[in-house]
Design brief:
Number of strands: 6
Order of helices and strands: EHHHHHEHEHEHEEH
Helix content: 40-55%
Shape: globular
CATH topology of the largest domain: Rossmann fold
Largest sheet: 6 strands, parallel
Structural class: alpha/beta
Distance between the termini: 8 Å
Number of helices: 9
Number of domains: 2
CATH superfamily of the largest domain: HAD superfamily/HAD-like
């Protein structure tokens, strides 16, 4: 029986991919590396540190940067990203999400978040959704980021539910792989999963529950 739902944040509840792209592109340019939006797609669902390492490898300069250098650069990127976040409004909630969350609440389902973003709480606060979420898994407290399953396992634990009592919603391949790794039922938004939906407007508890029965 489904008792809870675990959301990814970016690309499921809201779409801050463009903001990430602006911040990453500016940082990459500052160290002589050029990235485009297609490359930025490869950063979806992975941690800030892993994203920077991919950028450095893309530029052929990974060996020139120490762990401390990487920490400084990721902090710089995050500072710019956080400033960009302040321009978010409730209008940036993806279509269908508010109605779906209401549907979950009306059916007494618990809601968790499994996002690699360390800014997740602030983003939900800006969007007016923070009080709708029962538990936010802290990416800093899990050993491995997506596609490892750690953050989904932690989110289910925080909700007080077993893996087979929840399903997760993701828009990235890394996120779907993370759910598969812990045998959590998965719904993919525009990405192959146990159940694939094309957009967030297609989210329906009745439809999903029938599929997983």
């Amino acid at each position: 029986m489904i008792k809870g739902v675990i959301f990814d944040l970016d690309g499921v509840i809201t779409d801050t991919a463009k903001l990430h792209y602006i911040a990453w592109k500016n940082l990459a340019n500052s160290i002589g590396i050029d990235i485009d939006e297609e490359f930025n797609e490869s950063l979806k669902g992975i941690s800030r540190t892993d994203s920077l390492i991919r950028i450095l490898e893309h530029g052929g300069v990974r060996d020139k940067y120490s762990d401390q250098d990487i920490k400084i650069l990721t902090d710089k990127k995050n500072d710019e990203y956080v400033k960009l976040l302040e321009d978010l409004t409730k209008e940036d909630i993806l279509p269908g999400i508010e109605n779906f969350i209401k549907e979950l609440r009306d059916n007494n389902l618990k809601i968790g978040l499994a996002s690699v973003s360390k800014n997740a709480s602030r983003i939900l606060e800006i969007l007016g959704l923070l009080d709708k979420v029962d538990f936010i898994a802290d990416p800093a407290k899990v050993e491995k980021s997506k596609p490892a399953p750690d953050i989904f396992i932690e989110s289910a634990r925080g909700l007080g539910l077993a893996i087979d009592e929840v399903f997760g919603i993701e828009d990235s391949q890394a996120g779907v792989e993370a759910m598969r790794a812990c045998k959590m039922r998965s719904v993919g938004i525009g990405v192959d999963a146990d159940l694939r939906l094309e957009t967030t407007q297609d989210l329906s508890l009745e439809k999903i529950a029938l599929y997983f029965e």
